[in-house]
Amino acid sequence: MYVAVKGGEAAIENAHDWLAEARRGERSVPELEVAQIKEQLKIACDRVMGEGSCYDPALAALAIKQARGDLVEAAFLLRAYRTTLPRFGYTEPVVTADMLAQRRVSATYKDLPGGQVLGPTFDYTHRLLDFKLLAEGEVPRPEPTPAASADGRLPPVTDILAREGLIQDEPPGDDSAPVGDLTREPLLFPADRDLRLQNLARGDEGFLLGLGYASQRGFGATHPFVGEIRMGDVTVAFVPEELGFPVDLGEIELTECQMVNQFQGSDTAPPQFTRGYGLVFGHAERRAMAMALVDRALRTNELGQDVTAPSQDQEFVLMHSDNVQATGFVEHLKLPHYVDFQGELSMLRSLRTAWQETKA
What we know:
By secondary structure, this protein is an alpha+beta fold. It folds into 2 domains: 9-82, no CATH class; 96-120 and 146-170 and 182-327, no CATH class. 37% of the residues lie in helices and 12% in strands. The chain has 12 helices and 4 strands; from the N terminus they run H-H-H-H-H-E-H-H-H-E-E-E-H-H-H-H. The protein has a 4-stranded antiparallel β-sheet with strand order 1-2-3-4. Strand 2 and strand 3 (247-261) form a beta hairpin. Helix 2 (34-40) packs across helix 4 (57-66) and helix 8 (205-216) crosses helix 9.
C-alpha cells in the first residue's frame, strides 16, 4: 500500500543543516575561500557567470562554494540574485576589435595582423595529471603580455574575406531598433538573431557542445573553420541620461569566436562562406565555439536551406538550452507527487482488470 510520507519544517531545517555540514567537509582540512575559487577555478567561475547572466567573478565564486561545486546550481543561484538587482539601462555595444587580447588564434590564416597569440590554453598540453600540483608553494610565473597590432587594434580575420566579397555580408544593425531582452520578456517564435544569440550565450555549455558536435557530424549541414578565436578585456561604456555621452564603466573579459562555414548557395544567396558567431563571458572557448556552430545552424532558413536536423530547429534548441529551466523541470520530479501517482495506480489497475477480462 502506498502512503504519503509525512514531514515538515523540522525535517527541512535538518536537511539544510546537513547540507551545510556536507559543504564544509572534513574539518581538519582548511576551508576553501571565495577568493581562492575566484582566482584558481576561473574557468568554472566564467561558466557560472555566463549561464547565470551576470558578470561578477566574486559572486560566481561564492555561488560555486555555496553549491558545493555544482555549476548548474551555482548558475541558478547567480541568476536568482541577478533578478533582484535594479536595471539602470543598457551599455554601448562593446568593440571586440579593440580588445586587449590575451589569446588570439585563427585556423584559416597563418599570418595575421598582430600575429597568432597562443595565450593560456589547454590545447598544447599532454592531458597528463600533474602531481606537482599536490605540493604547495608554487612559484608564480610572470604575467603574459597582451597582444595588439601597431595601432592597438586586432581587426577580425573575417574582414580579409569580406574585402573579397567571399563571406556573407553582415550589415550594421539599426541603432534605433529595439533589441530583445530575454531577461525581461518571454521567448517567442520565430525568434530574431539577437534573441537567439542571447539565448545561446547563457545556454548550458554541454547542451550547446552536443548540438555543435552533431552539426559537424552531418546533423546540421555545416562544415566549419575557426576564422578566429580571441579572448581578452574590452571596455564597457554607458550613456547616462543626464550627460548624453558615454562614460567608461570598466573592463570585462570576453571570448569571441567567428566561425567560417562552407555554403554552396541557394535560390536566394550566392555561393559564399557564411558566419557563425559566439561571444561569452570570461575565458570560455569551447562554449564560444559551440555557440558559433549552433548560431550558424539556426540561420538555415535565412539562407534558403531546409531544416533537417534538431540543431537547425529554433524551438528545439532555444527551449531546451537553458539549464536553469531544465533543472527546475527535471528536478521537480523529486518533489511529492503522491496524489498524481495514486491516480495513475487506480487507472492502471482498472486497465489491467479490463485487459484480463478480454483474455478470459
